[in-house]
Design a protein that fits this description.
2% strand; two-stranded antiparallel sheet; single chain; mainly alpha; 12 helices
């Protein structure tokens, strides 16, 4: 799928953007189809058009919400009505791992998997299917589906909105801010990951390698924390703070427009 061509078409035909965004979110949310639709990348690209002022945030967020809601609802009802036959479908017999992973995730996390599973890549579209197969009450599924879609839709657009708004400030400065913000996200994630890993190993008395006598998860956590502090200092106490404030107000303006 030519992502660049699709985004270029959207930029030259903004009157069709609502319909296209709906279809992207719709197919991104249907089991099997989601494996072939680069929905996240496309929605981030749409977000960049929003950030640069070419598309309306509320319209795109609503289209994304409706597409995701409709797609996952369809997946759920397919699972509900064909629960005894799905395992025998040829595609699932060739690729049983997708159904198995989704069933493990659903049985481990229960109803919350419908909400949190929405943010876990291609597998997320199989969770509603499994919810239907497992006969999760329809009303309960729909309530969780609606609430999680309300969060998912703007969350998938927002990175692109920030990128688009940053580039509008100044390409060089915008790129610096984006790289710095990405660094903050990465090192924050690494810090949380290493802290979690350390306590899990400690709880179950697992041995771990060490550097200079310091447990490896702790050592990596300290490095991540130091990098995070350096980036925060450069961003908020350096010369970029004014540009960051400008970016913040641009994003707020685009979203509330």
């Amino acid at each position: 799928m030519n992502i660049e061509a699709i985004l270029q078409w959207i930029s030259t035909h903004p009157e069709w953007a609502v319909s296209v965004v709906f279809l992207i979110a719709f197919f991104e949310s249907i089991a099997i189809f989601s494996l072939f639709i680069p929905g996240w990348v496309l929605l981030v690209g749409v977000g960049a058009f929003i950030g640069s002022g070419n598309l309306d945030f509320l319209k795109m967020a609503l289209a994304s919400f409706m597409g995701a809601l409709t797609g996952e609802s369809l997946s759920y009802y397919i699972g509900w009505y064909y629960r005894d036959k799905i395992h025998h479908w040829s595609w699932f017999q060739k690729h049983p791992q997708w159904l198995e992973k989704s069933q493990d995730f659903f049985h481990k996390h229960g109803a919350s998997s419908v909400a949190f599973g929405r943010f876990f890549g291609p597998v997320r579209a199989f969770i509603p299917l499994v919810a239907g197969i497992s006969e999760m009450p329809p009303l309960r599924f729909m309530l969780i589906n609606i609430v999680s879609a309300l969060v998912w839709a703007p969350a998938y657009l927002l990175p692109g909105v920030i990128a688009g708004a940053a580039i509008e400030i100044d390409k060089t400065t915008g790129a610096t801010i984006l790289i710095s913000l990405l660094g903050m996200v990465i090192f924050s994630w690494l810090l949380v990951k290493e802290i979690r890993e350390y306590f899990i190993r400690k709880k179950y008395h697992h041995t771990t390698s060490a550097i200079l006598g310091i447990p490896l998860p702790v050592f990596k956590g300290v490095i991540s924390f130091c990098c995070l502090i350096i980036i925060i200092k450069l961003l908020f106490f350096g010369k970029l703070y004014a540009e960051i404030a400008d970016l913040f107000f641009r994003v707020v303006s685009v979203i509330s427009h």
